[in-house]
Amino acid sequence: MTRITSLDLPTFTRSTIGFDRLFNELHRTFENSPSQPYPPYNIAAINDDEYMVSLAVAGFSEEDLEVKTEKGVLLIQGTKPETDEKVTYLHKGIGSRKFSREFRLADHVEVAGARLELGVLNVHLKREVPEEMKPKTIKIVSDSKPSLVS
Q1: Residue 119: C-alpha distances to residues 6, 39, 56, 65, 116 (Å)
Q2: Strand order through the sheet with 109-117
Q3: Going by C-beta distance under 8 Å and a sequence separation of 6 or more, which residues neighbour residue 127?
Q4: Phi and psi for 65 in degrees, rounded to 5?
């Protein structure tokens, strides 16, 4: 059974300004994504400034996995060492092939940590906007006496 996910990006783009590149990137990602990505993954928003990328990496150990960031891209790679073990599988459903997954990070999003639990690699991401870039409320003052314009 093929499952196709569609997202109506024009609906989102009507209410945003200046995010054209982001929506173009999303559109390109959905257009080119394979139907069965390996390894499967989830992306969850914990709150407005924290996210979690979870990859199903059953059979991989900490030594087999690498998580790094470079130029705004999170790169997660897995490589299983070759073994001399001769095993005849009657069914092999647990993937163990090498993989490389890239996720583009938004501005000011950094990796806060990574943890391997029960065959799932969880990468915690956190947005830390510098104080000078945070929104500021400007106090409005008014004169108590009307001024005369001459």
Answers
A1: 29, 11, 6, 12, 7
A2: 41-47, 50-56, 120-127, 109-117
A3: 48, 49, 50, 51, 106, 108, 109, 110
A4: -115, 150
Q: Which helix (H) or strand (E) holds 10?
A: helix 9-13
CB 52 within 8 A of CB 43: yes
SS3 9: helix
List the structure tokens of 55: 């990859």
> Rounded to an integer, what distance in angstroms lies between the CA atom of residue 41 and that of residue 119?
12
What is the set of domains in the chain, with CATH numbers?
1-36 (no CATH), 37-129 (2.60.40.790)
Candidates 107, 105, 87; CA nearest to 96 is 87
pLDDT in tens, the chain (150 residues): 455 555 555 665 555 566 666 766 666 565 545 555 788 999 999 998 899 999 999 989 999 999 999 988 899 999 987 777 788 888 888 777 889 999 989 888 999 999 999 999 999 999 888 888 778 888 888 877 666 665
